[in-house]
Amino acid sequence: MSEPASTSRLGPRSVIGILGSGQLGKMLAQAAGRLGFRTHVYGDDAGPAFDVASAHSVGSFTSLARLDEFAANVDVVTYEFENVPVVAAEHLAKTVPVLPGPKALAVSQDRQVEKTFIRGIGIPVAPFMGLASAADVTAAEAAMAAWSGPAILKTARLGYDGKGQLPVATPADVASAWRDLGSVPCVLEQRLAFACEISVLAVRSLDGAVATFDIPRNEHSGGILRRSIVPSGLPAPLEAEARSLAGRIATALDYVGVLAVEMFYLGPDAATPLVVNEIAPRVHNSGHWTMDACVVCQFEAHIRAVAGWPLGDLSRHSNAEMRNLIGREVDEWPRLATAPGTCLHLYGKREARDGRKMGHVNVLSPRSPD
Ligand code: ATP
Ligand code: MG
């Protein structure tokens, strides 16, 4: 077997390979372009990233022959979504550096593995229980009764934007919720009464340095992110603790690139005020405000990290509120294009389906004193 490929600092005109053709891939490719890199996007369909990449390929993530052709044309491979098959990442890693490494994918693709990993390094997560087969239902009902209060059942794999989740009001509802999710492996977790949601965008460089962006407070509705607001308004010591938790996760994964860590803040009186909800081994929607409010944004920071560069200055020069444009909300773009302090980002997707992220705005104001 060949040695895993290694990376050193990539120079201008090197080719960054990006798996996934969505809006995150597009914004990664744009950031790479600013630094003089070329990009090659590999997607299973022609998404928005194809509009800006230097080159693109359509291929399945299970076609090793297509992936080999892609690998031969790039200097490093990264990805914009966490469901890249681990076997594909491991295969590519034999010939070209894949960053973040396949371990981050394996951990974040399965909620049970992810929560077990995070808890295992001493970081609080919501009480949870895996539900893999009918034989686990009774134990899950008993676990829920012991936590008290409502729960949420989530498919272990392939959930996003709240899809693959059902509320569970009482232990007696566990069995029907599991059936309604298709009787696939799931995680049942206690529904936490949080004060607010935040996320930490951490970046780890090839030499192991960790930096974090300022912390946004995130508002969801229907399981989908609506707004991210910076500064969060949370006390500085709490934010410092949140940054430290994210850094510990990045280091434990031997991570390279941007890692998003979603957290619940349970309020000052909770035994564990901060609880990690989930991680995403990629740039993240709750970091889009960095594009206009920071010196180096999350997309550039990720590209710098996977190219072996120093991370640069992640500091924030403005207050920012990021609002997603979901579905037909994108039709408001002519008004948003003239709104004061408003940076408009449209992904250029052809069809504005319900629940689809079509763009976002970053509304800036002067940075308030710390
Ligand atoms: P995304 O891809 O948008 O991050 P997702 O589908 O992976 O979402 P989660 O992040 O687990 O799913 O959940 C989506 C939202 O549902 C959370 O941001 C939060 O608002 C709510 N939620 C999830 N788990 C819990 C919980 N245990 N207690 C309370 N609220 C929760
Ligand atoms: Mg989430």
Task: Annotate the secondary structure layout.
Layout: E1 15-19, H1 23-34, E2 38-43, E3 55-58, H2 64-71, E4 76-79, H3 86-92, H4 102-108, H5 111-120, E5 128-131, H6 137-147, E6 151-155, E7 165-168, H7 174-180, E8 186-190, E9 196-204, E10 210-212, E11 217-221, E12 224-230, H8 236-252, E13 257-265, E14 274-280, H9 290-293, H10 298-306, E15 318-326, H11 333-336, E16 342-346, E17 357-366
Parallel strand pairs: 1-2, 1-4, 2-3
Antiparallel strand pairs: 5-8, 6-7, 6-8, 9-10, 9-11, 9-13, 11-12, 12-15, 13-14, 15-17, 16-17
Helix pairs in contact: 1-10, 3-4
Bound molecules: adenosine-5'-triphosphate (ATP) and magnesium ion.
Overview of this protein structure:
This protein folds into three domains: about 15-100, Rossmann fold; about 125-190, ATP-grasp fold, A domain (Dna Ligase, domain 1), CATH 3.30.1490; about 195-365, D-amino Acid Aminotransferase, Chain A, domain 1 (2-Layer Sandwich), CATH 3.30.470. The protein is built from eleven helices and 17 strands. The protein has helices spanning about 25-35, 65-70, 85-90, 100-110, 110-120, 135-145, 175-180, 235-250, 290-295, 300-305, 335; strands at about 15-20, 40-45, 55-60, 75-80, 130, 150-155, 165-170, 185-190, 195-205, 210, 215-220, 225-230, 255-265, 275-280, 320-325, 340-345, 355-365. The strands form three sheets. Strands 9, 10, 11, 12, 13, 14, 15, 16 and 17 form a nine-stranded antiparallel β-sheet that branches. A four-stranded parallel β-sheet has the order 3-2-1-4, sandwiched between helices. The mean pLDDT is about 95.
